[in-house]
Design goal:
The complex is a heterodimer of chains A (about 325) and B (about 475). Helix content of chain A is about 45%, strand content about 10%. With about 325 residues, chain A is α/β, with parallel strands linked by helices. Chain A has one domain (about 55-315): Aldolase class I (TIM Barrel, Alpha-Beta Barrel), CATH 3.20.20.70. In chain A, strands 1-2-3-4-5-6-7-8 form an eight-stranded parallel barrel, surrounded by eight helices. In chain A, helix 12 (about 270-285) links the parallel strand 7 (about 260-265) and strand 8. Chain B has two domains: about 20-255 and about 460-475, Aldehyde Dehydrogenase, Chain A, domain 1; about 260-450, Aldehyde Dehydrogenase, Chain A, domain 2 (3-Layer(aba) Sandwich). Chain B is built from 15 helices and 20 strands. The chains are: A alpha/beta (about 325), B alpha/beta (about 475).
Chain lengths: ~325, ~475
């Protein structure tokens, strides 16, 4: 990996404190840095992700993985038709995913549109995180002022995590400086709230772009980098997540700061979720196997995890009526 | 808590191993007349079965059966009909793939992940591919009436027992030859299961004969006067001996021998994938791969960082029970091979190279060797020159493309090479200058039946696979 030659290394200990923006970067330096990143061979990355997908996780390790996955879920509803009632119901479920079994862990957070943050906060209190999507989600097509207001509004309403989208248009035209500055500004607007930066990898298309966008977001101060909005196909994939995890791993090696990764969209089964945990385990190591550093953005995944959990405990499958719908 | 993977062993219930095994001659299992020997599971040292040893009488019988089948049926059969048999065998390999994979892992020691995902599927692919050629040989570029050679003697090694069998038998049958094949002494079981598949496919008797035994059986087979062609995969020493034995005869010969491949990584390579390629290049199949990337040539500017990444990656490799679906590194195939690896690695240390292995628990029983990396290796070290045939990587560095070529080619071998760079023009320039039969770019150890495989210099001659491989089993002469 090329060195951050124009940047003093932020020598912070591993911390859960909101991640600080690195010192100001000239856009020229940013371009040079991103251009100097090692390329990603798509065939090789896909082969590696597929190989890790063949790991066979059974018995107690499967039970552990399912509970860990549940605790990493950002239970999400991002529909135009969302109502406070719907959000409240989802929040109850987030706290007690399986009402028949109190040993089931809570999920990590609920993720909603900014205007529904109060409804969510009212139910969950400070027991779990409330994440709001902001910055003209999902397209990001608005002025910076609008995006900043969107963010401040959500934080003021009680969101302690902000899921922002990057300006993919600016990224794809090579205007990395604009993307960088926007993240810096949003980060500042977040205050103490953690910032997740959505790369929308389905629009970036190449794994080279995924690596560049990951580094750009981390250098601009992201606490998490997140694959997708869930509104664009493909959303999270194993190869994309692998490349993001590699970026996070290399960033840690350089700065001693651990950045989180959120795989969002398209992960529907326990089997898929376990593949992601294996990917995390064998790419960045088990330090990342915590909700502080890895999340699933999902809605239907949770019920499959719960059904698999019941199967592990009772030995037989229940029907879909034995897990709750939001 | 850390993420531990609970044991996930593949069940062995699917395989039924006979306690004693016969030879397969003229479509039937027939007792051998030599002293039988035992085959063991290298991961546990438990005896799996007793194997018949073919003596001279048995070798004669097998060659005679092959000759009869060649004269009476196989050489006269239309290519279309031969193709049908090959398709049938290919499908049977797929149908019985789990059985073949488990048996291969038991007898060879390789991880089930590899026998299941690599050996068996590619073996089936070789039969499918050559089945397609059987009725199209006149369009393959060997004249308008290419003819088979006759009876082919094939001797194969223990590293990919079923896959090497497929590489040998599929093209031989597709081109109209009949076969006497001798598997390696330590890995006969999948070849005998393949004999069952030949019966199941209703292959005419004598078209494929499998005789088991040690080196002496192989020597008698190769020297048999009624053999028209010899195909051998194995060590360079044995290959040279075979070439001496058949000198002055009309027999045709192809040899696929050892290697000491250079895996060359430039500073503009996709490093994460290159690290995967390095791991796959030398630790795949415990390094028991003739085309293994055993010499890593790193451009100096990225050497340190790449070695660090490699070491970090090696710590995630899982060594242990080959039947466990999560095992990456299985057992060394035999004590003899293990001793050779131990000897050569000792010489590496004595000659001043720096040795490193990840922490891993070595099982008490069986033959095991931890993945090993030697840094500070020079061209003069034995570990940079001799084929180790084990999970041992020698790391050297270079500064310029010319130096990389010079070092890569400075070996008596010439089987394979790898080039890692994102620059397309450099790939082409390097591939032209590396003296190796197979050159991989931004990947390593990829095999496909449509792609020819073979070496230069002491790595042998002749090609297997692809349209080029057919030439080893065809002649344009009218009578052969």
């Amino acid at each position: 990996m090329s060195s951050l030659d124009n940047q003093p290394l932020a020598n912070q200990p591993p911390t859960k404190q909101p991640h600080k923006t690195q010192s100001p970067t000239s856009h020229q330096g940013l371009h040079a840095f991103l251009a100097g990143l090692s390329g990603v061979d798509q065939v090789g990355a896909e082969a590696r992700a597929a190989a890790l997908g063949t790991r066979s996780i059974k018995k107690e390790s499967k039970m552990w993985a399912i509970d860990t996955a549940i605790s990493m879920v950002d239970l999400t509803t991002l529909e135009g038709a969302d109502t406070p009632g719907k959000v409240s119901a989802m929040c109850s479920k987030a706290l007690h995913p399986d009402p028949t079994d109190p040993t089931t862990p809570s999920v990590a957070a609920v993720c909603v549109y900014g205007d529904l943050v109060p409804a969510a906060r009212e139910v969950v209190g400070d027991r779990i995180h409330v994440a709001a999507v902001a910055t003209a989600f999902p397209s990001g097509r608005a002025s910076l002022d609008v995006k900043l207001l969107d963010t401040k509004d959500a934080v003021a309403a009680g969101a302690d995590e902000i899921d922002m989208v990057i300006d993919r248009g600016a990224f794809l035209t090579g205007n990395f400086g604009k993307v960088f500055e926007e993240i810096v500004a949003i980060k500042e607007a977040c205050g103490d709230a953690h910032l997740k930066v959505i790369l929308e990898t389905g629009e970036l298309k190449t794994l080279d772009n995924v690596r560049k966008a990951s580094w750009l977001a981390m250098k601009a101060g992201a606490d998490f980098i997140k694959t997708s909005t869930g509104k664009v196909a493909p959303a999270a994939t194993l190869p994309v997540t692998l490349v993001m995890l590699e970026a996070v791993r290399d960033y840690y090696a350089q700065t001693n700061t651990r950045i989180g990764v959120k795989a969002a969209g398209g992960i529907k089964t326990s089997k898929d979720a376990i593949k992601y945990l294996v990917l995390v385990n064998e790419t960045v190591g088990d330090a990342w196997l915590t909700p502080d550093l890895f999340r699933f953005g999902a809605s239907t995944l949770l019920n499959d995890l719960l059904q698999q959990r019941q199967k592990m405990l009772t030995g037989h499958y229940s029907g879909p009526d034995y897990v709750t719908i939001d | 808590m850390t993420f531990q993977y609970a044991p996930a062993p593949e069940s062995t219930a699917i395989v039924n191993i006979n306690s004693s095994n016969d030879l397969f001659i003229n479509g039937e299992f027939t007792p051998g007349h030599g002293a039988p020997f035992k085959t063991i599971n290298p991961a546990t040292e438990e005896v799996l079965a007793e194997i018949a040893q073919a003596n001279e009488e048995d070798v004669n019988a097998a060659v005679m059966a092959a000759r009869k089948a060649y004269d009476k049926s196989w050489s006269k059969m239309s290519g279309r009909d031969r193709g049908k048999y090959l398709f049938r065998i290919a499908r049977l390999i797929q149908e019985r793939s789990r059985e073949l994979a488990v048996l291969e892992t038991l007898d060879n020691g390789k991880p089930i992940r590899e026998s299941r995902d690599v050996d068996v599927p590619i073996a089936a692919a070789h039969f499918f591919y050559h089945a397609g050629w059987a009725d199209k040989l006149e369009f393959a570029g060997y004249g308008d009436n290419p003819r088979p050679l006759g009876v082919v003697a094939q001797v194969i090694p223990w590293n990919f027992p079923l896959l090497m069998l497929a590489w040998k038998i599929a093209p031989a049958l597709a081109t109209g030859n009949t076969v006497v094949l001798k598997p390696a002494e330590t890995t006969s079981l999948t070849a005998l299961l393949f004999a069952e598949i030949c019966q199941q496919a209703d292959l005419p008797p004598g078209v494929v004969n499998i005789i088991t035994g040690a080196g002496e059986t192989g020597r008698m087979l190769v020297e048999h006067p009624d053999v028209n062609k010899v195909a051998f995969t194995g060590s360079t020493a044995v290959g040279q001996a075979i070439q001496r034995q058949i000198a002055g005869t009309q027999k045709r010969l192809t040899l696929e021998l050892g290697g000491k491949a250079a895996n060359i990584v430039f500073d503009d390579a996709p490093i994460d994938q290159a690290v995967e390629g390095i791991v796959n290049g030398i630790y795949f199949n415990q390094g028991h791969v003739c085309c293994a990337g055993s010499r890593l040539l790193l451009q100096e500017s990225i050497a340190e960082q790449t070695i660090d990444s490699l070491k970090r990656r090696l710590q995630t490799l899982r060594l242990g029970d080959p039947l466990d679906k999560n095992t990456d590194i299985g057992a060394i195939n035999s004590r003899e091979q293990l001793n050779r690896i131990i000897d050569l690695t000792k010489s590496g240390e004595e000659e001043g190279a720096q040795r490193w292995s990840p922490d891993c628990v070595i099982p008490e029983k069986g033959f095991w060797f931890a993945p090993t990396v030697f840094t500070n290796v020079t061209q003069a070290h034995r570990i940079a020159r001799e084929e180790i045939f084990g999970p041992v990587l020698s790391v050297l560095t270079f500064r310029t493309p010319d130096e990389a070529i010079e070092k890569a080619n400075n070996t008596p071998y010439g089987l394979s090479a790898g080039i890692w760079t994102e620059k397309g023009s450099r790939i082409l320039a390097m591939a032209n200058k590396v003296r190796a039969g197979v050159v991989w770019a931004n990947t390593f150890n990829r095999f496909d039946p449509a792609s020819p495989f073979g070496g230069y210099k002491e790595s042998g001659f002749g090609r297997e696979g692809g349209v080029q491989g057919l030439g080893a089993y065809l002649t344009s002469e009218e009578s052969s």
